[in-house]
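Handout, page 2. Input:
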Amino acid sequence: QIRYTEQQMIDGGANRRGTVFQLTPSSNPSDLWTETILYSFAASPDGGFPSSDLIMDSSGNLYGVTLLGGANNLGTVYRLSPPTSQGGAWNETVLFSFSGPDGSSPFGRLLLDKSGALYGTTSGGGASQAGTVFKLTPQTGDVWTEQVLYSFSGGSDGGSPEAGVIMDQNGRLFGTASTGGTGTLSGGVVFRLDP
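Output:
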């Protein structure tokens, strides 16, 4: 059985806007791993400069976010679908382009729930330009609907979340924001969002 790891680079690739790559180990543990570029990001409206770890669904699709690119050059959520034939190309689809009020510059790993919805964070945008927590829900025809679950103020509630969120068994979301909080340093917060 071949083990492999998917990861992404924030820069480089054919268009200097980042890549998604796969590393495959050699059968000899002392040999170097083999790299395969699965996708090179291009100019808008494609995403650019990937800014998260990847997650995989049960069909082998990969999901991630890009810091820039998309219809408004404010970042995207994208999906990479595996090739339909051996050795074929992976197919990229921009699922959502951020516009500012709904968030900008997404950062951090996405969360995929049992219904197929995606949750994540943007480091900017939202009502106070201090970042958001968002949910993307798939609709018929591969259209995704975004809902801003929370807009940070940059004050005591925090700002610029950059690590995504995790979910407990009650549907509560937990994460961190890199700025804001109480006190003189305002060094960030750990937050919980209740449904």
